[in-house]
Amino acid sequence: MKLVVIGCGRVGSAVARDFAADGWEVTAVDQKKEALGRLGDAWEGRFVVGHGMDSQILRRAGAHEADAVVVATNGDNTNLVIAQVVQKRFGVENVVVRVLDPARAQFYATLGLQTVCPTQTAISELGNRVRRTAQVLA
């Protein structure tokens, strides 16, 4: 199975390492060459330097033949554009995109994108833990 990960920060690099450890053929993409260091010395996957909104970079990364793409740069707008390009232009059905804004994540999910919103996850988890602790203490 082939995975392309766009954005090689803390999240993207962890996803790339995790799938590579599971035997996937992984290509990570980041604008900064230094991001390769986040993948570790044992990294055997591919790494492409460039912007994920560049169709040539996406093609060089193998988006046109990927089984899945994870988009996890540090910008919601960038992530959403890249996810739509990968889905529509390259025909990848399994595209998962990180979106920090809960309202945007919900809206784009209604358009068929698989969105992950860590902000909403944190809001929900924080509230759940406060409620559980309050019930125990009551």
Question: What does this protein look like?
Answer:
By secondary structure, this protein is of the alpha/beta class. It has one domain: NAD(P)-binding Rossmann-like Domain (Rossmann fold, 3-Layer(aba) Sandwich), CATH 3.40.50.720. Helices cover 44% and strands 19% of the residues. It is built from 5 helices and 6 strands, in the order E-H-E-E-H-E-H-E-H-E-H. It has helices spanning 10-21, 55-61, 76-88, 102-110, 118-137; strands at 2-6, 25-30, 46-49, 68-71, 95-98, 114-116. It has a 6-stranded parallel beta sheet with strand order 3-2-1-4-5-6, sandwiched between helices. Strand 1, helix 1 (10-21) and strand 2 form a beta-alpha-beta unit. The longest helix is centred in the C-terminal third of the chain and has 20 residues, at 118-137. It is globular. It starts with a strand and ends with a helix. The mean pLDDT is 95.
